[in-house]
Amino acid sequence: MLQEQEAHAAQMERTFIAIKPDGVQRGLISEIVSRFERKGFKLVGIKIIVPPKDFAQKHYHDLKDRPFFNGLCNFLSSGPVLAMVWEGEGVIRYGRKLIGATDPQNSEPGSIRADLAVVVGRNIIHGSDGPETAKDEIKLWFKAEELVNYTSNAEKWIYGTN
Ligand code: UDP
Ligand code: MG
């Protein structure tokens, strides 16, 4: 029992997930949140904000040399974004699976982008692509005190630690 709990704690990770302005405007917040929630991941931070353009540029700094960078940053700062931090075993990698490939035309059916979006420039959701990015993005979007540590009642049933 203790070993299971320790193994579980060691594999716990956090990722940054954001519903972009198109997803918010299209009324897809509850649909998207429920996919992460029903899977068994735990919501530890959430807020709705309109990110200023320079903030969007910071968030997407890796893409600054790409031709779509300016349009992408304008778009991200064009309206409310739902910023979230989700916690769970493997949540960084599996979160990307739930989201699907960048271009919805190539996303696997069943994934969020495949089911709910059509073009790459309006693919409704962002998710960190690895542990380092997750750490950086969580730090950029959230203050430490905006993230909540708690044990959910369901956790022992999700992870078999009961
Ligand atoms: N994007 C775009 N055109 C492209 C590639 C990407 O408009 O040809 C946008 C798209 O909204 C994507 C975002 O830029 O989600 C960030 O690109 P990235 O390659 O990091 O994809 P993601 O990590 O979001 O799947
Ligand atoms: Mg990316």
UniProtKB/TrEMBL annotation:
Its EC number is 2.7.4.6. It is an enzyme of class 2 (transferase). Its main location: plastid. GO terms for cellular component: chloroplast thylakoid lumen. Keywords: ATP-binding, Kinase, Magnesium, Metal-binding, Nucleotide metabolism, Nucleotide-binding, Transferase. It catalyses: a ribonucleoside 5'-diphosphate + ATP = a ribonucleoside 5'-triphosphate + ADP; a 2'-deoxyribonucleoside 5'-diphosphate + ATP = a 2'-deoxyribonucleoside 5'-triphosphate + ADP. GO terms for molecular function: ATP binding; metal ion binding; nucleoside diphosphate kinase activity. The active site is at residue 126. Residues 12-149 form the Nucleoside diphosphate kinase-like domain. It comes from the Eukaryota. Its cofactor is Mg(2+). It is found in: Plastid, Chloroplast thylakoid lumen. ATP binds at residues 20, 68, 96, 102, 113, 123. Major role in the synthesis of nucleoside triphosphates other than ATP. The ATP gamma phosphate is transferred to the NDP beta phosphate via a ping-pong mechanism, using a phosphorylated active-site intermediate. Shows the highest specificity towards GDP. Belongs to the NDK family. Homohexamer. This is Nucleoside diphosphate kinase. It comes from Salvia divinorum (Maria pastora). The lineage of its organism: Eukaryota, Viridiplantae, Streptophyta, Embryophyta, Tracheophyta. The chain holds residues 69 to 230 of 230 of the full protein.
